[in-house]
User: Fold this.
Amino acid sequence: MDFRLSDEQAEFQRTVHAFARDVMRPVADHYDRTQETPWDVIRAAAEQDLYGITYIQKMGSDPGGLFGVIYAEETHWGCAGIALAMSASSLAAAGIASSGTPEQMAQWVPECFGTKDDVKLGAYCVTEAGAGSDVKALRTTAERDGNDWVLNGTKIFISNGGIADVNVVVATVDPTLGHRGQASFIVPKGTPGLSAGKKEDKLGIRASRTGEVVFADCRIPMEYLLGGPQKLAAKLERARSGQSTGKASGALATFEMTRPLVGASALGIARAAYDWTLDHLETQEIEGVPALETQAVQQVLADVATEIDASRLLCWRAAWMARNGVPLTGGQGSMSKLKGGDVAMWATTTLMDLVGGYAQSSECPLGKWFRDAKIYQIFEGTAQVQRLVISRLQREERKRWLTQNELAGEPAAV
Assistant:
């Protein structure tokens, strides 16, 4: 086992960090204040192949699976809001990849990003007013009408919501079947019946547009059903007959793929706050003693550094497992997301306490990182839901371990 990055991974890390430092950081405060979409940064990322189909192909070329979590950590170190404005398109692409046919993937994944000359955005539309972590409670409907589908409902808190060129929409086709009665659809920008609802005025990640997406008798052709009608019909038949597929819903499968990325994103915020605090305290004294030489300060910084490293290792493990086909049956994906979000919130709060009154000044960047961190305990499955998932999967894994050992004739541990 080798925990060192490969030469290619280390070079990629340096490239993304330089982009975050030189392109994202200088404009982070501007976009945090104005809440404008950072088109200039997205275009610059596309020019450097850090946004777009070339970037997606690079993510898939790494046998270690670490390119994605490295990218997430470094870009969120630069600015979480700008990073999310870019990565939301990848979430839409992941939704297409998890449910679509090869032909649909070839057509629509590039459309989530556009080209260097014509940058586009994607949005993954799942959350509703009564259905956040509880995906089976979705109320947006899709009804078949001849060779078309007609969508009705409202999605809320959607990243790139209202401005995306490609919307990947999870809707209910048979409400009696829960999440097994759902399907995913492509709804391109400009489709009649598709409209932008309220734009959210958020606490953090303000450079990333978050808004409602409204579907009112929104009619799309049959070929926009991801996976195709035969796959959906077979899925519904299995569900109605009580057969188990052993698979999660399309939305849950997409989130499982992205949880290590979300954990690494939160980690980037924590590291940004930690790096700044170290640099700031280098110039501070406490009762005539350099701040970094006092035990009280050292104790806090050691705890923050340890938690950041622990979070990173969980994210890297989950990313490696997912890339190499190792089932995350013990909740490793949820662990990485849970730990990353909790560490980001705890670290920013703890470091603000350490810095003291200056942390309340608008000049101090800790306030922005504190605001940005909170969402990582909430979206893509709240911290509480992640704990439930981990607990259930751990129980199931323990039962499997006991069964396997009993079959092997080994006594169970007491």
